Amino acid sequence: MKFGGTSVADGERIKNVAALVKAGKPPAVVVVSAMSGVTDSLVKISKKVIDLPSDVVEREVDAFCRELLIRHREAAMEAVSDKKSRSRVLEEIIVFTDKLKVALLGVGYLEDLSPKSSDYILSFGERLNSLIVSGAIESLGLKSCALTGFEAGIVTDSSHGRAKVLYKMMKQEVSAKLKPLLEDGFTPVVTGFIAADEKGSITTLGRGGSDYSASLLGAALGADEVQIWTDVDGILTTDPKLVPDAKLIGTLSYVEALDLGYFGAKVIHSKMIEPAMDADIPVRVKNTFNPGCAGTLIVREQEKIEGIIKAVAIAKNVVILTLTGVGMAATPNIAGRLFSVLGCANINIMMISGSSESNLSFVVSESDVDAAVGLLEAEFGEDIVNGLSIMKDTSIITVVGAGMHGAKGIAARIFTTVSDAGVNLIMIAQGSSEVNIAFMINNGDVERCVRALHDKFIV
């Protein structure tokens, strides 16, 4: 059972989570995110202190840690009713905030925030919250303990910021560390998002890390189900902010969910699907605030529906980079070198298109643009590449549905609908799974495009 930041945002909501855990099928492993907004605030303060004068650093860090301590202490006072558990949780919260203070002061005085230091600082949001959630569960009469992802057995390499899981080692470690606790009647509360390398140095799993943590643990333990508890009823047919009558999708296949998560569905992250899919464990997306709703069930079987398309996903904050140059045609392995140099820097290429041997376009996240440009300029000289163009203010629109596989004329129908809505296509790609078609449009056309597709294909 994984609970996101909004589900554990304060003491009252944490009490609700504890009640859901008790009402569920024991034994369960609980995975928690930081309280909503805490991770962002940790990112902000860690970057801020490196630019502050030495005499200001201590004052800023003191104020930040005091505010963080107060928020978590208030949550613990409300959520943890058992006096013994509450006393222990409050003491541990103070210990953790003191450790965070030391780390932030060190970063500020050295004026250097390394990826390793950043991971350590960001870990405190989940570590603080896991203490409170575990205490709240204890207060309802269950045995519980708070663990970091590493203490639960999740081992990674040392790629700080986007660490890669060492699967074989992790499966053995998770089984050895969690199964005895479960057999003894404990409900482990594990920090999402954070793990550690073989030496014990804290690492983070990147965007969507808490969902990923839950899926990894579920797969390693052979769980009956991985539940992602969030603040919506499940996965919807599209963004309800754009289409108010977006509908709940009852069932999705792993492949459909992968594509939706990869191309912008915020409820799930694509990388959390793979461990569950490999272990053939169902994933259920549920609403913490409406637990009676069945939610969305993600399973192996692909279900075709009458409307063919099940959902329309939107990925914003993306940029198209285009390499051009006549020298590219005569130079072998241009694409391979491009993939390699960006991959080694953990920069993900979301889409790629090449209309000729002297033209190669690809899409990256807006946050990766500066790094990507610098790497490409260093890798490819002027004798090969005449120019590197950047197109911003674009979005990826992806239509997903198992019924698209083998359906005649579906691409024509999709693009006719987009054209009739007055929307221009910039770039097109179809996934190898044949259950999605993705294309790029200008940001200003997103709402019009999504509404047209939803009205046409989703009934």
Rg calculated over all Cα atoms: 24 Å
| Overall pLDDT level | 90
**Topology as a string of helices (H) and strands (E):** EHEHHHHEEHEEEHEEHHEEEHEEHEHEEH
CATH fold description of the largest domain: Carbamate kinase
Strand content: 15-25%
Helix content: 40-55%
CATH architecture of the largest domain: 3-Layer(aba) Sandwich
Shape: globular
The biggest sheet amounts to: 8 strands, mixed
For the secondary structure, the number of strands is 17
- Give the distance, in angstroms, between the N- and C-terminal Cα atoms: 32 Å
What structural class is derived from the secondary structure elements?
alpha/beta
- Distinct helical segment count: 13
How does this structure look, described?
By secondary structure, this protein is of the alpha/beta class. It folds into two domains: 196 residues, Carbamate kinase, CATH 3.40.1160.10; 147 residues, VC0802-like. It contains 13 helices and 17 strands. The strands form three sheets. An eight-stranded mixed beta sheet has the order 3-5-2-1-8-10-11-9, sandwiched between helices. A six-stranded antiparallel beta sheet has the order 13-14-12-15-17-16. It has a three-stranded mixed beta sheet with strand order 4-6-7. A hairpin with a 2-residue loop joins strand 13 and strand 14. Helix 1 crosses helix 3, helix 3 packs antiparallel against helix 4 and helix 10 packs across helix 11. The longest helix is centred in the first third of the chain and has 28 residues. The two termini are 32 Å apart. The model has no long low-confidence stretch (mean pLDDT 90).
